[in-house]
Every structure is written in C-alpha cells, then in structure tokens.
Amino acid sequence: MLQSIRDRSKSWGAKIIIGAVVVTMALFGVESLVGLLGNSGDEVAQVNDEPITRQQLEIEVQRAIRSGQVPPDQERALRAEMLDMLITERLLTQYAEEGGLYVSEQQLDQLIVTLPEFQDAQGRFDRELFRNRLASAGFTPLSFRQQLAVDLKRQQVQQGLAVSDFTLEEESERLAELQRQTRSFQYHALTADDLASAPELQEQDLQAYYDAHQGDYRRPEQVKVNYVVLDRQQMAAEVKVSEEALREAWQAGAAEADRRVSHIMVTFGDERSREEARARLEQVQARLAEGEAFDALAAELSDDTSTSDAGGDLGVISRGFFGEAFEDAAFALGEGEVSGIVETDNGLHLIKVTELDRPALEERREALRAELALEQVDDAFNERAQRLIDDSFAADDLASVADDLGLSLEQSDWVGREGGDGVLSEPGVMQQAFSGDVLEEGYNSEVIELDEDRRLVLRVAEHRDATTLPLSEVRDEVEAAVREAKTREALVELATRRVESLRASETLEIDWQQAESVSRQGGSALPEALVQAAFRLPHPEGEQPVYGHAVDGERVMLIALERVQDGEPNAQMEAFVANMAERLRAQAAIQGLLDDLRDKASIDRL
C-alpha cells in the first residue's frame, strides 16, 4: 500500500513519457479526446475546493491504457483507481505550492534535454524527436512542461521527507542480527472443539454488543433507481461486417504498420558530389532491375558501414525515429518493394521493405471487426444520443424513453451515495441520483457521459432515509459476531491456563507440531500470527522452553519456543533489509503526510 501511494504520487506524466512512450501508442494525442468527450467541465471530485473534472480523469485513464499499463478491457474498473491517484496528487501539489516550492524554467530545460528518450544516436537533444514522442503520449510541449513542473514539486516534498530520516550504524547492525535470526518451536492449535462446552449467548450480551457496534449496523440513505444505458459497443456488437471489408481494412493497415527495412546509402560532400552520388545509385537501380540481390549490393556499395555487412538491414522501424523523407518513402512501400532515390541529411538512399511487422488477418480479425463495426454505428449512436437527451428531458417517466429508443429499462437494488455495482459505481452517477431535481422533484436525470461509448439516464424509483437497523433485523449477524468473540475469549482463557500449567512443568497431553529454524522472512506454511508471536517471546534459558500463545482467526495457538539461532550472515540479504528499512522509514513519513493531508482536507467525490 505504501509503495503504491509513493509510486502513484511520483511523476505520472514523466512515467508515461519516459517509461512507455517508446512504443507508438496512437496516431493522435490523448488531448484530442477533448473533441470526443466534448467540452464538458463536469466535476468528479473536489479537493479543498479545487475541482477534478471528468475530462481530466478520462485523459489519465486513456494515457494509462495507451501506455500499455492497463488492458483496454479493464478500462471501466480503472477509473476509481485513477480518481484516487488524482486526489493524492492534488493534495501533494497543494501542499508543495503552499510551502513555496519552486521549479525554474532553467531546471525544466536542463531536465528535458538530458532525458535519453529525447536524444538522437549521438546523445544530443533532438527537438523533432521530443515533439513526436510527446504527441504519441498525448502531450503538447507546453502541457508536458506544466505537468513536469508539478511532478517535480511533488518529488521535492517526497525527497525532503525521505532524506530527513536516517539510521545509525548500530541500528543497522542490530537490525541485521534480528533479521537473520531463526527460531525453533513447537505449536498446537486450540479450536472450539477443545472447549468443554460452547459459550452461552445471553440476551444482554447481544444487546451490549449491538449497542457498542451500532455504527456497523447503520444503513445509509439509499435509493432504488431505474436507468437506461445507450452503449455504442453493444450497438456495434450487433453489426455484421463483411469479409471483404475486413480484408480491405487489414490491407489498409499495412500503410502504417511497423516494418523491417534495409537501405543502400551513398554519401556526398567531400568525396563526391550529389550528382555523382545519384549516378552511383542509378547504377545500383539498374543492377537491381537485372536481378541482382539488394543485400549483396548493399554489402558492396553502401557507405553505411554499420549495416552494409548485414545487407543494409536497419531492423524494424516505426514512425518518429527517422527523418520525414526517409519514413515517407519507407511507409509508402509494400513488402519486397524498393523505393526511388531518397535524399536525407546524411546522404542518398535506396530503401527496401523486407518485412511488414503486422499480425496475420486471423489474429486481427476480431479487433478489426470491432473497429469497423464502431465506425458503422457512429452516426446512429450520435443520433440516438441526441434523442436520449431530448426524450429524457421531456418525458414524465423513463419507461417511454426506453421504449422509444429500444433500450432495456434496468432497476437497481437499494444503493447509497457511495455507489453500487456496474454503471452505478461510475463517477457522477450517484451524484445525479441524489440531486435535488432527481431525488426531490422526481425528474429524469441529465444524460450522463460514462465514457465516449456510453450514455446513461436514471430516475429514482424509491427512496429511504439513513437509519440504524433495529436489533431484530440484524439479530443473526449480531449472534454470529458475539459467538465468535466469546469463543475466541474462551480459547484465550484456555490457552492462558495451559501456558501456566506448562510453565509450572505440569504434564499435559498435547499433540505438538514441530517448526525448525523458522525465519522472519517467512517461506514456511505457518500462519503469520504464529510466527510473529514466536519471535516476540523472550529467549529460552537452558533447556526449559518459553511458552506463549497467538490468536490466529478463530484458533488460538499454543507455542513452546525451544531455541533461538543467530543464523548465517548473508551480505546480500542484509543490504536488502537495510535498504528496505530506509525505504519503509521514508514511506512511513510520506504516508504520514498523506494521512494528515487527507484528514485536514475537504474531499468530495461527486
């Protein structure tokens, strides 16, 4: 949990740029989603009166998907996690800015030009490469700089907390000793069957437990809602796509597919003129026409000595890694075709595509079918979405809207403001359900854009206020909780008596199980509660074991600690433990700050 919070509160924009942007994620940037989603400023949360909009959430979700961090089919489940991340980041950003932390333009410039992802083969910053990779990840140069500045401020906060803590050398040595220590002990599990009789449940016990835990039995304000969902994906699933259309789309995809290319390069300048270089390549073209092999001619005539021995092979290329002229020529070729003479900054080239790096039609069939089907229903979806807006606004019910649009009218069970399952867990849905117009006036809700493919309208069917459920309604739950607690108390009492008898050297019939040389690092099948309790016991003196007990769920474990061994030194493990201790200290400091910020903040999920 701590590592997750720490990781997420680091540079999110930089993570996507630096960690995944080397893969082409799309033909257009994520910021183009603004057009798809509309200019809606609907808020999904407020953090100290600063809004987080639905658009910001959607952009982060799409960036995560396109960077390869999350499969597209998990997109809907991703939103709650992304919203938590945005809230955490907003809290850290506010704290950093309130503290006056500052990142200069010069610092940003220095960081950007030193990132290897934006450097050419000679290690120099390449402005064109910078822009291309930003565009692939959905950033403009300005939006990337702004995001990077915010990320650096958050990192200043985290790094300041991390380096403010330290470990003394004596502490590190003692920690290493404790970490490699092992213990040998016997154990025995006491269960409800070991009790002479089951604990009796008195009415006053139930009432006392219920009175002390009424918060556990409080039912929040709830509604039942009727709702309809217009789903572009569902519409597309009903569309038939012809085999001919699939093949045409697959063939068209070859135009932008990554490809393996070879080239023959002839330079000009000091050794030869441009005209001489062109004449040399024209001779190569003539020899190719006569049937000579491209790779043999590359080995003989190419000035690119780094590839000539491999027949001119440059490997698999994507757009954005070579110059525009070279890529335009390479991506205009089919497999096995050779370009005309192409001029770039470093010479003249003949380019051959030796292989298209694309999956077979059968591998792409379902994805292509889905893409083509979505294109076919696009106009119909937009038309039905507009009708949904018009009909739901004018109608006095939701059933007529569902009938008019051919949609299923769904009804939920009781659900509170925190949301329910499926679409009722999406941001903004329950905010609409509990809004004044919908809950109090009885109107249909506004059309809610769940994402680019789904629109939802709901209407409250029933409403009930928050209340504490009476004992009569939750009696079974209370009885189960009291029985479990009383059984555990009885087992602890039994374990305490047996431990006292063992310490007094009394002989008891106990079926002990042996555990040899158990380490703190785990690796055994023993319950964690048992191992922790064994390591909390004092060292045995002489041959007499040290006795104790541990609570493990519904069982209570007797423990007889026999030996404590120092364990073998392990430099690698001890270095790891020391490093982990430092990280845990830093994470605890960061988590402490986050907990404090959350406690003091005004956070509203809408």
TrEMBL record:
Pfam families: Rotamase, SurA_N_3. It is found in: Cell inner membrane. It comes from the Bacteria. InterPro entries: PPIase_dom_sf (IPR046357), PPIase_PpiC (IPR000297), PPIase_PpiC_CS (IPR023058), PpiD_chaperone (IPR052029), Trigger_fact/SurA_dom_sf (IPR027304). It is a single-pass type II membrane protein. The chain crosses the membrane at residues 12-30. Residues 256-355 form the PpiC domain. Keywords: Cell inner membrane, Cell membrane, Chaperone, Isomerase, Membrane, Rotamase, Transmembrane, Transmembrane helix. Belongs to the PpiD chaperone family. PANTHER family: PEPTIDYL-PROLYL CIS-TRANS ISOMERASE D (PTHR47529), PERIPLASMIC CHAPERONE PPID (PTHR47529:SF1). This is Periplasmic chaperone PpiD. It comes from Halomonas pelophila.
